[in-house]
Write a structure and sequence with these properties.
The chain is α+β, with helices and mostly antiparallel strands. 26% of the residues lie in helices and 27% in strands. The strands form two sheets. Strands 1, 2, 3, 4, 5, 6, 7, 8 and 17 form a nine-stranded mixed sheet that branches. The chain starts with 6 loop residues before the first strand and ends with a strand. The structure holds 2-OXO-4-methylpentanoic acid (COI).
Length: 366
């Protein structure tokens, strides 16, 4: 897939097999990293060059590197899955590659080709495939979480797009993002903080958006919630997303709705896949504005039967309640979240090669 081949600089002190096996048995999320990382450098004069897979380790950055001051940075999240025959696959990488280019344009960073994006995943996995965990059951969502990112590394304090940039991919074995797995999570309604505004960077996957969500995330934790729901900045009325996940609402008549995409919402690959799988299941997907009042009223009347969050890291996780400063929005009846569970099982079956890939969503890495 890649145009350029990645030069290999092998790690001379890789993790011992027994230590890696211990980590894979209980990886958590984002805590352990594999033995190598992929790297490609960009300069204004030379473009993308110097493709390498090299030992994982600390970066040397000049203290004046632009990313440290002006946050010119973007990233992606994508997983590698081990199938029963031992092969390793990833899911819709061209969607992530395309979003990465969209994010790059918004952050005035250079665009990386799809060939280099997918090629970097292939090159890293060629070395570190032993780090892809093997699922122990059909409910097990363990995988190798891949984190491509791009930073402005130029040593310069003037505010303008950097002329030296580095792209890396690191990889981290992962279990469920939420400790409770498929147990419903409580969500905090951020009434003061906004994540994104029209014309801003909300649709781009840039570190700044996540930094902007942290004060609200802190409020969420203080109130016993695992995530934050953000409303729109203009009217404080329309549901946007959770900051790291998209939201879906299931209605008792078979409709399944998610906020329509605007420039303040991240276009999730899982979100897009859920819309397709829902249609396959005979549900009626809708992308449209959804107000907080519709959530309140639909929950109280029983019109809304399920709410769930979805994302690469979170897969599909039911939302048990929305907690605000003055209220708790709970669904009238406890449905047991059958639709969320069914869609989640369909998605995992596809990703782990247990179901036929009728949409052509899988790419083999190893
Ligand atoms: C992902 O789902 O891959 C994300 O990027 C969310 C994350 C920041 C945990």
């Amino acid at each position: 897939m890649s145009n350029a081949s990645f030069e290999l600089l092998p790690n001379s002190t890789p993790t011992a097999d027994s230590i890696r096996e211990d980590i894979l048995a209980n990886p958590g999320f984002g805590q352990y990293f594999t033995d190598h990382m992929a790297h490609v450098r960009w300069t204004l004069d030379a473009g993308w060059h110097g493709h390498q897979v090299r030992p994982y380790g600390p970066l040397t950055l000049d203290p004046a590197a632009a990313v440290l001051h002006y946050a010119q940075e973007i990233f992606e999240g994508i997983k590698a899955y081990r199938h029963a025959d031992g092969s390793v696959w990833t899911f819709r990488p061209e969607k992530n590659a395309e979003r990465f280019r969209r994010s790059a344009r918004r952050l005035a960073l250079p665009e990386l080709s799809d060939a280099d994006f997918i090629g970097s995943l292939e090159a890293l996995l060629a070395q570190d495939h032993a780090w892809v965990p093997t699922p122990r059951s059909e409910a097990d969502e363990c995988s190798l979480y891949l984190r491509p990112f791009m930073i402005a590394s130029e040593k310069f304090l003037g505010v303008r797009p950097a002329q030296e940039v580095d792209y890396y991919v690191i990889a981290s074995p992962a279990a469920a993002y939420f400790k409770g797995g498929i147990e419903p999570v409580s969500i905090w309604l951020s009434e003061h903080y906004k994540r994104a505004a029209p014309g801003g960077t909300g649709f781009a996957k840039c570190g700044g958006n996540y930094a902007a969500s942290l004060a609200a995330q802190k409020e969420a934790s203080a109130n016993g919630c695992g995530q934050v729901a953000f409303l729109d900045a203009a009217e404080n009325k329309w549901i946007e997303e959770l900051g790291g996940m998209n939201l879906f609402f299931v209605f008792k008549d078979g409709r399944i709705a998610t906020p329509r995409l605007t420039d303040t919402i991240l276009e999730g690959v899982t979100r897009d896949s859920v819309l397709t799988l829902a249609r396959d299941e005979g549900l009626t997907p809708e992308e449209r504005p959804i107000s907080i009042d519709e959530w309140r009223e639909g929950a109280a009347s029983g019109e809304i039967t399920e709410v769930f969050a979805c994302g690469t890291a979170a897969v599909i996780t039911p939302v048990g309640e929305l907690v605000g400063e003055q209220e708790r929005i709970r669904l009238a009846g406890d449905s047991g979240n059958p639709i969320a569970k069914r869609l989640r099982a369909k998605l995992l079956d596809l990703q782990y090669g247990r179901a036929e890939d009728t949409h052509g969503w899988l790419t083999r890495l190893v």
